[in-house]
TrEMBL record:
Annotated protein name in UniProt: S1 family peptidase
One Gene Ontology biological process: proteolysis
Signal peptide limits: 1-29
GO molecular function annotations of the record: serine-type endopeptidase activity
High-level lineage: Bacteria, Bacillati, Actinomycetota, Actinomycetes, Micrococcales
PROSITE patterns reported in the protein's UniProt record: TRYPSIN_DOM, TRYPSIN_HIS
Pfam families given in the database record: Trypsin
Keywords: Signal
SUPFAM superfamilies in UniProt: Trypsin-like serine proteases
InterPro entries (UniProt xref): Peptidase_S1_PA, Peptidase_S1_PA_chymotrypsin, Trypsin_dom, TRYPSIN_HIS
Keyword Signal found: yes
Length: 297
């Protein structure tokens, strides 16, 4: 997994909450190999949090931690392991900017001041988190799905950025297609996460992240709630890593990109497999139904 929880590729919190986080399981970034910038993926955004790590009531960190996708004008789809278990008072934002890391690098002040500056400049929009009440569920269905929603906010991402919300799959769409068609289709993962592990004196590091990238991946297997996607470099694939959690895995069907699944976990160094949560399943659709108009069967 690539997150602090048992199966996630969450980056910022993994680092913030302790060394165990990176081995735990959430995904956060796109790998270095076979990847490219994705300025055209305007619906794909960074999950940004402002939080207090020292329990003194003063926020001390503003950072991108996960990825996600706008699925209508005011709802951003991500993973429950990205919305779960933050300190009281944590504030949540989405940025649909291409290079979020550069915004942080060039904005001065305390984390509170940075957030205020970036909000005023239209580089962040603040929202409210919701997650599947059944998370963390079971191995067969983790219920690892959540949103940052803006329906109760006066400013939504649609007020700030031009984007076309992602197309969700119809109920059971991946089952209906079957493995042969899914293997023949083109798959793309996108996100703001880090790169695959780099070995250095003192251990592994995961450089990069904070920039919207995409990479081709290859269909491997489908089961009840998961799509497994190959990220092996020699086959021309790229892949997801820490901070890509919650981000989109698109499949091209009849010339249209469909948001088939969200990045959740994978192998620890991020070289082999992306494990993504299906969005055509009954449980994913049940969670999403209050937030978006779902396509039918
Ligand atoms: Ca503090
Ligand atoms: Ca909505």
């Amino acid at each position: 997994m690539r997150t602090p929880r048992p199966a996630a590729l969450l980056l910022g919190t993994a680092v913030a909450l302790g060394a165990t986080a990176l081995t735990a399981g959430q995904a956060s970034a796109i790998n270095s190999y076979n990847a490219s910038p994705a300025p055209e993926r305007t619906e794909t955004g960074a999950f940004v949090a402002l939080w207090d790590r020292t329990d003194d009531g003063v926020a001390d960190r503003l950072d991108w931690v996960c990825s996600g996708t706008m699925i209508d004008a005011d709802t951003y789809l991500t993973a429950a392991h990205c919305t779960d278990d933050w300190p009281a008072g944590t504030r949540f934002f989405v940025s649909l900017e291409q290079d979020v890391q550069a915004l942080f690098d060039t904005t001065s002040g305390t984390p509170d001041e940075q957030a205020a500056t970036l909000l005023a400049a239209g580089k962040l929009v603040e929202g409210d988190t919701f997650q599947d009440a059944a998370y963390p569920g079971t191995a067969s269905d983790s219920h690892d799905i959540g949103v940052i929603d803006f329906a109760a906010r006066s400013v939504t991402p649609a007020d700030v950025w031009d984007f076309v919300p992602a197309t969700l799959p119809a109920a059971g769409a991946l089952d209906a297609l079957g493995s042969r068609a899914l293997d023949a289709a083109e798959w793309t993962v996108a996100g703001y996460g880090t790169q695959e592990a780099v070995r250095q004196p003192g251990g592994q590091t995961h450089p990069g992240g904070g920039v919207r990238l995409k990479a081709p991946v290859d269909f491997d297997a489908l089961n009840k709630t998961w799509v497994r996607l190959a990220m092996t470099a020699p086959q021309g694939n790229g892949g997801a890593c820490y901070g890509d959690s919650g981000g989109p895995n698109f499949v091209e069907l009849d010339g249209e990109l469909v948001l088939a699944a969200t990045t959740i976990t994978g192998d620890t160094p991020c070289y082999a497999t992306n494990v993504a949560y299906r969005l055509d399943s009954p449980s994913a659709r049940a969670f999403l139904e209050p937030f978006v108009t779902l396509p039918g069967r």
